[in-house]
Model the fold of this input.
Amino acid sequence: MPLIELKSVSKIYPLGNQQVVAVEDLSLQIEAGEFTVLAGPSGSGKTTLLNMIGCLDRPSNGEVWLDAEEVGQADSKTLSQIRLNKIGFIFQSFNLVPVLTAAENAEFTMMLMGIGKKQRRQRIVDLFAQLGLQGLEDRKPNDLSGGQQQRVAIARAMAAEPAVVLADEPTASLDTQTSEELLALMKELNREQGTTFIFSSHDPLVISHAQRVVSLRDGRLESDR
Amino acid sequence: MDLFLLAWKNLWRSRRRTLITLAALSFSLMLVQGFHNLSFGVYSEMIDSGVRAGTGHLVVYQQDYVAGRDEKFSFDPQKLVSQISDLDGVEAVLPRLYLPGLAQSSRESRGILLTGVDPSAEHMINPFLKNLTAEQLPTLSGREAVLGSRLLKELQLKPGNKFVVTLQRRDGELVSEMFRVHSVVTTGIKNVDKSLLLVGRERAAAMAGMPGEVHELAVVLQDQRADRQVFPLLQALLHDRPQLRALSWDEAMPNLSNAIKLDYASQKFIFVIMLLIVTIGVINTLLMSVMERFREFGVMLAVGASTLRLRVLVFVEAFLLGVVAMLLGSIFGSLLTWYLSAVGIDLRDFIDSSLEFGGVVFDPIMRASWDLPYMLQIAGFMLLLSLAAAVYPAIKAGRILPAEALRHH
Done:
């Protein structure tokens, strides 16, 4: 059974008296361990699709299955538990908590899971070493470069060892070299730990690193290669 | 890193706003504590002064004497004076006799309240007599009288002059006796200065045909807060004499008690308004803080935080704000109380040197007294208000939808 399965999923947003179809009748299967990019121009429905896979939003129609569980119509409490235990998020603008240090940001999800301080710290030491963040543990996000912040965001997403990491335009705020480095890093994590990565991006660099590219246009599946 | 640490760090994101809110909270707590303690000190002094001149902290009457002041309700105290004096916490027991009558000089006559007292017992207790020397006190059975200054003036008498007091004896006959102005007191209470006529208790009792009897046993305590402990002991002593009743000062002097209650109620109203205004300020601070973090809360929800956890986070922030305000406010409140008790507020430039309130004269230099239970109570109340102020912001935080918040810039 695939890790993620979308069955005839649609998402319709009300906009005044009109209705905007963001995703229309889309079906998709993603296996565990894939390194997939949802590609397409702005407004093609990439982020909406990613939000539904990530249990941040519910589909208007259709079913979303994650790890053999139908999550499309689950209640808020269940969705937040699924996000905590199975999903890691990486955002375009990093979205670190500015009052917390790099280490505190990275261990945030583990804190939510109730993991003890000692265990959290050990995991952060390992992750920071792997991500090249040694010595930056006590820095606040504002004292870090964009690339460093995104590495901390990757650490936060990976810390609780999720089944899938969802990254919404993760390189859009970074220069090419940093983007290249981060993509290589995520690919390494995908390869070594078997974590599934799903990106939304229209950046050719990201697309070039992908194992599978799912192209969207006007909320519909254009191609899958 | 736990929720308390995160909440604490969040509080200091907008340092200036948090400091202003803390200042408003702690300043209002300081004012409430300081001015309550000032009132507490003034009221305590008024009660003390009132009970020493009036009924005592506790008082023994026969039946309903307190309701109508009917002089027929007199009683023989027998051994009660010494028995009550032996109770722990009792400073003095003052037997008194009150007889309405008429005082006549050669030129004028006035209605008076002839009060029979034990001069030596009253001397150190009764504020009306505290300025007199032992020689200026009347004797227990002599014809020396202490007059209020206004009464002296209205009767057109001078110290040493003689005058006649007429009253109705217990058997209904009118009786007149001559007294001599021995000394004069000015209490500052208009009605008292117009009607006060103190003589020795034995002389008054003999004149009224009720030798050895009294209308009142005023029990003065060493500490007015001990009345709850002494009252049941006093009631136990009266067990064998069902016609006698023990009352506390507030039952026996409802005018003073009600005046204090009314004054404090108006002050409490101001306290409540002040605290409500401050609470609105706290709501504003917390709400702004939540709205500013709309996107951040969305991220927290996305990475797995529950809406309950966000609500708890807002409450913890309010709790920490309240705790810091409680500590700072209590320190400032203690400093203000210390100043008000040591230095006080001098009203002499604004009012007469003697000021009457609720039938009692109080010192124009107002001084605070420590009311620690109240200070703790109001500090706890401040903490509760901070938490109450977090309810609406916490509800708002809990309603944030992660997908919508992540689109927010």
